[in-house]
Write a structure and sequence with these properties.
Blueprint lengths: L3 E5 L38 H11 L3 E4 L10 H9 L4 E5 L8 H6 L7 E7 L3 H4 L10 H10 L3 E4 L4 H10 L5 E3 L14 H7 L8 E6 L15 H11 L4 E4 L9 H10 L9 H13 L2
Helix pairs in contact: 1-9
Length: 288
């Protein structure tokens, strides 16, 4: 089985050459996406350390998702992928309101190691793009569909908008991050978000990342109180649209435990389906 992690973060510390947004520099002890979320570790995580972690845990490949607090640059992610050929693909950050956004998008997949785009809608300045009929970035969805650019979406509380986009653009591949969960929730608090996700299984161009799951449990490994939610989503989406991911660098457990959680502890996933869940489905969706 070739294991491909659907989401890891590699990142550099703030520097004059590659500065972070000012608001991110005020978060001591590890940055967070939103208040109440499990923080990323405080120390930067580079490619050499990530590859060593993957080798130790039996992970063959990983998708790098640049963390939003570090800003919109994809340079370090692409440099990391280039330094370890065959080990990484990148789902880069993208600003659809940039002056040259449409030109950037036209050549997006021509960038070596770039597999698609990861959009975040968990903060007001981004969430407004999903208001109404999505007119602010309507061109973006249409162009991504036409150009065959897969999208990963962090959109807690906005799955209604994700469904609307999926129906309007049936040729567009959409992958919902973290089961669509709000990052500040834990345990049974997550069930309403899960129930809001399940109807999207009826849209064949929507897949889901079962990523960062240990971050949503107050229990220790093997996080058994998440089993019901994971089983419900797996049964709805099936193994070819249900993708494991770790979300390194903010795990509350070891990387090996994040892998074994899905390989050893979720008995509702048949052995024949494990290769799909652990990387084959994601590889097909991203053409990785």
């Amino acid at each position: 089985m070739k294991i491909t992690d659907a989401q890891v973060h590699v990142w550099q510390a703030h520097s004059a050459e590659r500065p972070w947004p000012p608001e991110s520099l005020s978060q001591p002890g590890g940055f967070v996406a939103v208040p109440g979320a499990r923080p990323h570790r405080a120390e930067p995580l580079g490619g050499a350390e990530m590859v060593a972690m993957m080798d130790a845990a039996g992970v063959d490949r990983a998708v790098i998702v640049p963390p939003s607090p570090a800003g919109d640059s994809n340079l370090f992610a692409l440099e990391t992928a280039a330094a370890w050929p065959g080990r990484f693909a990148v789902m880069g950050r993208f600003d659809p309101l940039a002056a040259d956004a449409r030109e950037q998008l036209a050549g997006w997949l021509e960038q070596p190691h770039m597999a698609g785009i990861r959009m975040t809608f968990h903060k007001p300045q981004w969430s407004r793009w999903l208001e109404g009929d999505d007119e602010a970035i309507a061109w973006f969805w249409a162009d991504c569909e036409r150009l065959g650019i897969p999208l990963m979406l962090m959109a807690p509380g906005r799955l209604d908008a994700v469904a609307r986009v999926a129906r309007k653009h049936p040729g567009l591949t959409l992958v919902v991050d973290h089961l669509g969960l709000h990052s500040n929730l834990r345990d049974a608090q997550c069930w309403p978000d899960v129930l809001g996700l399940l109807p999207l299984a009826n849209l064949p161009n929507v897949a889901v990342k079962a990523s960062a799951m240990p971050c949503y449990s107050s229990e220790t490994y093997p996080f058994r109180n998440l089993n019901g939610m994971l089983e419900a989503v797996y049964n709805a989406f099936g193994p070819r649209r249900f993708c494991w991911g770790s979300d390194v660098s903010r795990l509350p457990c070891s990387y090996r435990q994040a892998v074994d959680h899905f390989l050893e502890e979720l008995d509702f996933i048949p052995a024949a389906d494990q290769p799909w869940v652990m990387g084959q489905a994601l590889s097909a969706l991203l053409r990785f």
